[in-house]
Specification:
The complex is a heterodimer of chains A (301) and B (303). Chain A is mainly alpha-helical and 301 residues long. Chain A has one domain: MetI-like fold, CATH 1.10.3720.10. Chain A has twelve helices and no strands. The radius of gyration of chain A is 25 Å and the shape is globular. The N terminus of chain A is likely disordered. Chain B has 303 residues and is mostly helical. Chain B has a single domain, classed as MetI-like fold, CATH 1.10.3720.10. Chain B contains 15 helices and no strands. Chain B starts with a helix and ends with a helix. The chains are: A mainly alpha (301), B mainly alpha (303). The interface between A and B is large, with 93 and 103 residues.
Chain lengths: 301, 303
């Protein structure tokens, strides 16, 4: 069998399965060249620069009170934004899949707006809305709530930016959810809420969590939509990406590199859970489809 | 059967019209729909609306004047240049990478896929910053570049590079699942019939993925024109020279020229809306293609 180690001539290391299609060498070669120049080289320069710092210096920079304040704001607001999106994302996905109302198609397409709209445009739009004299900022201010130029403003912007992730993650799962499962539950006497929480929710949970993780990861690194509404006061409303830029503006390359490395490590660390959650979600989806066709086949009396 | 039905009649509750077995009552439906619509209205429609409301707040004449201002025009030119270079390059990369990943099995494939996804998980500021560390005056290649009088950071080449970095995954990510789903039979058939590799690619593979390709290019372009964080770091913010449209918007806004800022922003918002329209069109096309091929399979079975 081709592609398997041949026993006769000893074990061969198989790096690639044989294929009839041409162009592998050219395609892979170009891809690797592009990625090396574009991604690996700059990343190497970053870690090289970071290595010129001693551990003590590195730790001193990344644990300074200003840096820690920025982490608290960035991660805290991202968590809030992603959580709001988790709840409302499932709600929006449910309404879009199960109900119909005038203009539904437009609402459905516009869910992707935060994904397509440039972050600077989103930033100035949100700031104008939530500023003290803005459409929503004024009524909120009369209630004593300061929205723009506060951590709340950061959370609002990060909610906007993560909106599509949970919705688009849960929608296909809900669309594929076989009604037979819910009908079976109802025929066994389950109330509507029971059916929802025991049948639907577990099925969409992996997708919802994957969307949550993606929204969180995106929010942590977000700059353009936040930097206008935040207020950018160090120790209070300064997000971590802004801290990097500020240090760069002051020619503090070492400091900027240290913080950038922290952000890089967090980004890379988030890739694995997100991948796992997405795998879990698609395997759950497949099993759900299998269950409905096999286990619910009518039993002849 | 009669026994069974009377048995079932006693055990089951007969669903009423107001609460069908697998649906909610009308009240719950309206409440949930209302909540979802309110949420979307606040977070999507309001920001979109205010861009155009502010842009036209001082009338049509002021709107056009803002767009015709020399710094605005050079910002638009730079945005178009950056996108015009980044999108074709990333298109070629996307097709190449998708071909290698989707059609072949090899060691390190998942590592490669993860690497391609990297710009999605890295902050834009970090994306720009790593180029400053490579090409900046204090960077790895800084001294060599200074000696040869080549300027990358704080100049147009840096902006183009940063734009290429943040947008290179889009086409590849669109094409990989498409090419994978296609399988290899059609290409193998073409090769067996004597087509060369390039002929197979252009006549067989490419037409099958053209809608996904279009969508990937549109997304890539939208992100390339709208990128802010990464470009902000490498740009130097020199008016009329190294400002793209998003950077120009920032400058105008910080100078309290709100109408002008929103006027330029409205162009980018229109680009975003166009992107969404193309997305819907492509999805509709793909759904129809899927339905057509399913019907074709069904007809083949009964033939």
């Amino acid at each position: 069998m081709r592609g398997a180690p041949s026993c006769g001539k000893g074990m061969r290391l198989v790096l690639k399965k044989r294929s009839v299609l041409p162009g592998f060498g050219l395609a892979l070669g170009y891809t690797l060249l592009y990625l090396s120049l574009l991604v690996l080289l700059p990343l190497a320069a970053t870690f090289l620069k970071a290595s010129t710092l001693s551990w003590h210096e590195f730790w001193h920079i990344v644990s300074s009170s200003r840096a820690v304040a920025s982490y608290r704001l960035t991660f805290g607001a991202s968590l809030i934004g992603a959580s709001v999106n988790l709840v409302f994302g499932v709600l929006v996905a449910w309404v879009l899949v199960r109900y119909s109302f005038p203009g539904k198609r437009i609402f459905d397409s516009l869910v992707d707006l935060p994904f397509a709209l440039p972050t600077a445009v989103a930033g100035i739009a949100l700031t104008t809305i939530y500023a003290p004299n803005g459409w929503l900022g004024k009524p909120l201010a009369s209630l004593g709530i300061k929205s723009a130029y506060s951590p709340l403003g950061v959370a609002i912007a990060l909610t906007f930016i993560g909106l599509p992730f949970v919705v688009r993650s849960v929608q296909p799962v809900l669309e594929d959810l076989d009604k037979e499962l819910e009908e079976a539950a109802a025929s066994l006497g389950a109330g509507r809420w029971q059916t929802f929480s025991r049948v639907v929710l577990p099925t969409i949970l992996p997708a919802a969590l994957a969307g949550f993780a993606m929204a969180f990861a995106r929010a942590v690194g977000e700059y353009g939509s936040v930097v206008f509404i935040a207020g950018n006061m160090p120790m209070r409303t300064e997000i971590t990406p802004l801290l990097i830029i500020t240090k760069l503006d002051q020619y503090d390359y070492a400091g900027a590199t240290a913080i950038a490395v922290v952000m890089l490590v967090v980004s890379l660390a988030m890739l694995l859970p997100i991948n796992l959650l997405q795998k879990w979600s698609s395997s759950r989806e497949e099993r759900g489809a299998e269950v409905s066709t096999e286990e619910l086949a009518p039993v002849s009396v | 059967m009669a026994t069974a039905s009377s048995l079932s009649g006693e055990i089951l509750t007969v669903p009423t019209a107001a609460q069908p077995a697998t649906g909610e009552s009308a009240l719950v439906r309206w409440l949930l729909t209302g909540a979802a619509v309110l949420f979307l209205a606040v977070f999507i429609f309001l920001p979109l609306g205010i861009v155009f409301a502010q842009a036209f707040a001082k009338g049509l004449a002021a709107y056009w004047d803002s767009l015709r201002e020399p710094d605005a025009l050079s910002a638009m030119r730079l945005t178009l240049i950056a996108a015009g270079i980044a999108v074709p390059l990333n298109l070629v990369f996307g097709v190449t990478a998708a071909w290698a990943i989707a059609k072949f099995e090899f060691v390190g494939k998942s590592l490669l896929t993860t690497l391609i996804d990297l710009p999605f998980s890295v902050s834009p500021v970090v994306s720009g910053f790593i180029y400053v560390l490579l090409f900046g005056l204090q960077g790895l290649l800084g001294p060599w570049l200074a000696k040869h009088n080549i300027q990358i950071i704080f100049a147009v080449p840096g902006i183009v590079l940063a734009t290429i970095f943040v947008t290179f995954p889009f086409v590849a990510r669109e094409l990989i699942p498409l090419l994978q789903a296609q399988g290899q039979e059609e290409e193998e058939a073409a090769l067996a019939l004597g087509a060369s590799g390039w002929q197979t690619f252009f006549r067989v593979s490419l037409p099958n993925i053209k809608w996904g390709l279009l969508y990937g290019v549109i997304l890539c372009n939208a992100r390339a024109m709208g990128e802010f964080g990464a470009v902000s770091v490498v740009s130097g913010h020199i008016r009329g020279l190294t400002n793209t449209m998003p950077l120009h918007i920032e400058i105008l806004y910080n100078e309290y020229q709100f109408t002008a800022a929103f006027a330029v922003a409205s162009l980018l918002a229109l680009l975003a809306l166009t992107t969404l329209v193309v997305k819907s069109a492509v999805e509709w096309r793909a759904r129809r293609q899927l339905a057509d091929s399913a019907r074709w399979e069904g007809e083949k079975g009964t033939a």
